[in-house]
Amino acid sequence: xxxxxxxxxxxxxxxxxxxxxxxxxxxxxxxxxxxxxxxxxxxxxxxxxxxxxxxxxxxxxxxxxxxxxxxxxxxxxxxxxxxxxxxxxxxxxxxxxxxxxxxxxxxxxxxxxxxxxxxxxxxxxxxxxxxxxxxxxxxxxxxxxxxxxxxxxxxxxxxxxxxxxxxxxxxxxxxxxxxxxxxxxxxxxxxxxxxxxxxxxxxxxxxxxxxxxxxxxxxxxxxxxxxxxx
Length: 230
Fold this sequence. Notes:
mainly alpha
C-alpha cells in the first residue's frame, strides 16, 4: 500500500510538472485570453450598470408623479376642510397617507439604486484602470519576449556559424596537410629518379664544389701556360 501511494503521488507530481510546463509555454496566450475575459466581464458590468440606471430613472419618475399626486390631494383636503366637509377631508387625507407610504417605499428603493449605481461606477472605474495598466504591462512583456526570442535565434545562428567555421578550419588544415605530404612525395620521387650521382652532385653543390664549372682563375692559368706568339 505504501508503494502504491508513492506511485500515485509521483504520478500526480509528474502531472503537475507537465501542467506547469504547458502553462509556462502558453503563458502569453493564456494571459491574452484572461484579458479578453476581463474585457468581457467589464462590458457585462457596464451593461448591468446601464440597466440599473434605467430602473432608477423609472423609479425617479414614479417618485415625481407621487409627489405631484400628494401635493394635488393635499390641496383637495384643504379645500374640503375650508368647505367644512370633514368626512371628505378625512377620506382625502387617507388617500394622501397611502400616497406618502408608497412614496416612502419608492424613495427608499431609489436610495438603494443610487448607492448601487455609485458603487458600480467606482468599481468599473477601478477595473478599467487596472485593466488598462495590465494591458500596458502585457505589451511590455510581449516586446521583451520578442526581443529575447530574437536574441535566442541570433545566438543559435551564431553558435551554428561558429560550428561551421570550426569545421571549415579543420577541413582547410587537412587540405594543407595533404598538400605538404604530396610535396614531400614529389621530392622523394625526384631523388629516387636521380640516383646516387644526383645525390652526390647535390652534396658537392652544397659544399661549394662545382666541378666542371669555369672560373676566372682557371682561365688565366690556362692562358699563361700557352706559348707566346711570334
